[in-house]
From TrEMBL:
Residues 2-66 form the Mechanosensitive ion channel MscS domain. It is found in: Membrane. This is Potassium efflux system KefA. GO terms for molecular function: mechanosensitive monoatomic ion channel activity. One of its GO terms (cellular component) is membrane. The gene is kefA_1. Its main location: membrane.
Length: 173
């Protein structure tokens, strides 16, 4: 109990998180709703509330999006087939960036497509989406991801090539 009280004082003094901050905690995108002496209450993007003991909260690394510059790059990671046409995906992504809400996006010149890795299943293609505000970046990235997948499927159909790998469950295990 005393450890939790000291931990909550530590949060108050170093201000690593404040009520209203948007954070990523244990892969949950959350808002900090309440900081008590014994627990921190977080609200997940879907409305679920996480109650985390203060000692556990301060000993677990988290990302505070509110403390960053308002502009940020959201990285959308997709696994693509070895023979996927990255240039076609790049063109499609440029079109997608121009279609998204301008108020949610940062500088469109910061939008990039990179092959960041490769393994037996295919290429790791990363799409860097410039966002103006961390509070809307998650929604913008989800919209962009849906549009990228749809564009990839269209490209595959039109050109008769694979964009996304066909993986059987036994291979994924």
């Amino acid at each position: 109990m005393l450890g939790n009280i000291i931990a909550s004082l530590q949060i108050a003094l170093n201000q690593s998180a404040k009520i209203g901050d948007r954070i990523v905690y244990n892969d949950y995108l959350c808002h900090v709703e309440r900081i008590n002496f014994t627990y921190v209450q977080l609200r997940d993007w879907d409305g679920t509330r996480l109650i985390v003991p203060v000692e556990e909260f301060i000993s677990t690394p988290f990302e505070n999006w509110t403390m960053k510059e308002p502009k940020m790059l959201r990285i959308i990671k997709l696994k693509c087939a070895h023979n996927a046409d990255v240039d076609a995906l790049r063109e499609a992504f440029d079109d997608i960036v121009s279609e998204l809400d301008k108020d949610e996006l940062g500088d469109p010149d910061d939008a990039k497509v990179r092959v960041a890795g490769q393994d037996v299943f295919g290429k790791d293609v990363w799409f860097a989406l410039p966002c103006a505000d961390p509070n809307t970046s998650w929604d913008a990235a989800c919209k962009a991801r849906e549009m990228i997948i749809a564009a990839g499927n269209r490209i595959a159909e039109e050109r008769g090539i694979d964009i996304f790998p066909e993986v059987r469950p036994a291979e994924a295990a």
